[in-house]
Amino acid sequence: MVGRSGLEFVDSRGGAAAAMNTAIGAALISMVCNLTIGKPKYVEHELTMIDVRSRAEELRSLAVELAEADATAFNAVMAAYKLPKSTDAEKLARTEAVQEALVGAADVPLRIAGAAADVIALAGRIMDGANVNVISDVAVAADSARAGLQSAITNVEINRAAIKDESHKAELAASVARLKDAVLTAGAISESITARITG
Amino acid sequence: MVGRSGLEFVDSRGGAAAAMNTAIGAALISMVCNLTIGKPKYVEHELTMIDVRSRAEELRSLAVELAEADATAFNAVMAAYKLPKSTDAEKLARTEAVQEALVGAADVPLRIAGAAADVIALAGRIMDGANVNVISDVAVAADSARAGLQSAITNVEINRAAIKDESHKAELAASVARLKDAVLTAGAISESITARITG
């Protein structure tokens, strides 16, 4: 169990890193779709590529927004910890404010994890129909989004560890458990593409 | 075996992504060292933190340089493929130029992979002595560098597949095999820290 006391909660950059890894994955997916769309050789995958490109662009924007949201949620936790705690009433108000802020600070990485899992799913949708000249970028996208997902899960967990509401803790744990499958999916996509490349 | 004919080699962004994931990992390691150095509680780890911070800063710079080097190496491959191929002499010169460029294009991601493996090793060196308030960032650093490493390996492989010199191919394969251990190390670091966080 990791202590989270004091004013040293400076791990918002880890949240930004998770969001950035996810955005890189989404950007690569979008690039691969762009380099596949309009090519006669891949015409049967055209509709999939157009749909995936649009989703990837949404996810890239979302990831960038979530990097900012993560910084905001982190600052809210910092601010709550700085509340006065001289009287019992102040202590109670501070504890409540900290707990509320922590719930927000766990929610943002959970949304980053969700976006990363969606990017991984997009990689899965295009891996068979993508322009073979850029197939390695689909693997890179999956690996980058995998890092985003794994990092976001770590960030959920560190906040979850400090949350006292047992039912909310259990909810977060269930959400994380559902998202963990996508870590394995990303690994499988990357390995399968590497196997194709190395023949 | 993936075809690499024509002028569609636009996967330099995958190389940039690998370098960027590595740089993110290095930056987080450096941040964690900064937030550990000077704190009485962690005084016994002070020298390790100072040394690791210095190495992490070097690796971050190196990764940024390698992102540029990757673009240059990629452009060299593009340029070689654009050489004339009307006569047998031209064809021969073009093939030689392409092969030379491909060797360069495999070498840069190999160096990115090496830098990523070094970042993972730094994460391992600080995971036990780092400020516990930012321990999650060590896991995020390992996950990000892992993505950089895996992606760089994919980029080595796609270039290796088009290289004809069997002895150079074998050398690259051996280098990749050595680096793959660090993928597992990164996973172990991340898992071990997550286990500490979730208690």
What does this structure look like?
In chain A, about 80% of the residues lie in helices and about 0% in strands. Chain A is mainly α and about 200 residues long. The interface between A and B is large, with 50 and 50 residues.
Describe the protein's topology.
The structure is a homodimer of 199-residue chains.
Chain A: H1 12-34, H2 46-81, H3 88-126, H4 135-160, H5 166-198
Net shape of chain A = elongated
For the largest beta-sheet of chain A, the strand count, sense and barrel status come to:
none
pLDDT under 50 segments of chain A (min length 5)?
A: 1-11
Strand content of chain A is under 5%
In quaternary terms, these chains amount to homodimer
Q: In which range does the helix fraction of chain A lie? A: over 70%
| Class from helix and strand fractions of chain A | mainly alpha
SSE order of chain A in H/E notation?
A: HHHHH
Which protein chains are joined by the largest interface, and how many residues does each one contribute? Answer: A-B, 50 and 50 residues
Number of extended strands of chain A: 0
- Count of individual helical segments of chain A: 5
In round numbers, the mean pLDDT of chain A is: 92
* N-end to C-end Cα span of chain A: 45 Å
Radius of gyration of chain A: 20 Å
Question: Short summary of the structure?
Answer:
The structure is a homodimer of 199-residue chains. Chain A has 199 residues and is mainly α.
List keywords for this structure.
homodimer; 199 residues; mainly alpha; elongated
